[in-house]
Amino acid sequence: MSKQKTNEGLFGAAKKFSDAFFDGLKSNATNKALNKVKNNKEVPPPIIKRMIEIDKLAKQLEADLKKYA
Known about the structure:
The structure is a single chain. This protein has one domain (about 1-69). About 90% of the residues lie in helices and about 0% in strands. The model has no long low-confidence stretch (mean pLDDT about 85). It has helices spanning about 1-40, 45-69. By secondary structure, the chain is an all-alpha fold. The protein is elongated and about 50 Å long.
């Protein structure tokens, strides 16, 4: 039975690691996209502002979901 708990612990740790890894990739991709848009003079400022607001709201929602999960 202790072997089963060990396996569950290993799978849980691996899941946490992979989740953190892919969350980091997603965050980096989002940041790069926002930086490109900010530097692009063809994108209107209201669109850039809205994109930044959406990113903030998505981060707040994710934090709230983790808090109440």
